[in-house]
Design brief:
The structure is a homodimer.
Chain A: H1 11-31, H2 37-48, E1 52-53, H3 54-61, H4 65-77, E2 81-85, E3 93-97, H5 99-108, H6 111-119, H7 123-146
Antiparallel strand pairs in A: 1-3, 2-3
Helix pairs in contact in A: 1-6
The structure holds a DNA duplex.
Pfam family, one (chains A, B): Staph_reg_Sar_Rot
Domain HTH marR-type (chains A, B): 8-145
GO molecular function, one term (chains A, B): DNA-binding transcription factor activity
Chain lengths: 164, 164
DNA sequence: AACGATTTAGTCGTGTGCGATTTAATATCC
DNA sequence: GGATATTAAATCGCACACGACTAAATCGTT
């Protein structure tokens, strides 16, 4: 007999609680530069590629505009970036780093090493784990889109060119 | 050469976004029984062992009383459980399922199988993944706890170049 | 050119999550 | 036995996160 499913069996709970555990490790590091974790993610995206649209940031982070708009406004209020409506298409809002926004990239540079150390694991193991989790997320996104009882297949409107 | 850390490299982001992806798969299933995911977790804990204290639930879920108290009050308002102050120690609040709270356990019984199907992976692989994630969480909790008195503090940006 | 459909952000309401603080009850120390 | 410390929940303020909806701009078809 399989037995009643308890918390112990839930992979989702493992992800949920480990995500929170990560946040607790990040917090003191991010407090030092005045960012929350989601704000840090947005800044990381912009450090990689500046001048993205709100929607593009949302696509990268899998977050809705209803989440991002207030968050980005807070970053603007903190003087780290600027929001400007695109002159070509005024529906779109382009997000650009300020000098100060670029400057704190250096302050944040030490964070990944701190996090790596906190995991106490080898980078190879962590990357392997990340690969497995990414694969799982892709599966779940498929399922969430395709939704109902299995048989109906939804054609994705856009091909997802995804990394590992 | 390691290069600048981008979003692609972040295990934490993989966890963060996959946790949200799980939530999106759960949502339609939980909507049917009127629960949110954290509420479902609390109910799962109580289905396993009824009559726990708020603090004991918090320990199992790694959540603070400031999160749990309002959540549990909502479950009480929904008629799924009852909060009673312990007569021996009136600081403590014991949480007990109502008949209705026990009843929806049957309705929720089909959820794990739905989730398993949504992952599209073999249970053995998922359990292996869960094991790795649990180990990671334990490490992170160690780091978050021992962070103050431990050996590692925030590394200055200068010495970051060594770490990849 | 006209007008309905689509797209992009933004707003609003609800429900987490947590740190800091508070309140009340119990434990401990002298 | 009474002052003090500790503990368990609760409260408060802030920041996500999302669904439902809105507003405005653009697109598409005729």
């Amino acid at each position: 007999m399989p037995g009643a499913p308890t918390l112990e069996h839930f992979l989702c709970f493992a992800l949920y609680s480990t995500s929170h555990a990560f946040n607790r490790v990040y917090k003191p590091l991010l407090d030092a530069i005045g960012l929350t974790y989601p704000q840090y993610l947005v800044m990381t995206v912009l450090w990689e590629q500046d001048g993205l649209l709100v929607g593009q940031i949302g696509e990268k982070l899998a977050l809705e505009s209803s989440t991002l708009t207030p968050l980005i406004k807070r970053l603007e209020a903190a003087g780290l970036l600027q929001r400007t409506r695109d002159t070509k298409d005024e529906r779109q809002v382009r997000v650009t780093l300020t000098p100060r926004g670029r400057a704190i990239k250096a302050q944040a540079a030490s964070i990944p090493a701190c996090i790596l150390e906190a995991t106490g694991q080898a980078p190879e193991q962590l990357m392997r784990l990340k690969g497995d989790i990414d694969a799982l997320r892709n599966q779940l996104e498929q399922a969430a889109q395709g939704g109902r009882s299995g048989s109906s297949r939804v054609i994705t409107p856009r091909e997802e060119t995804e990394h590992g």
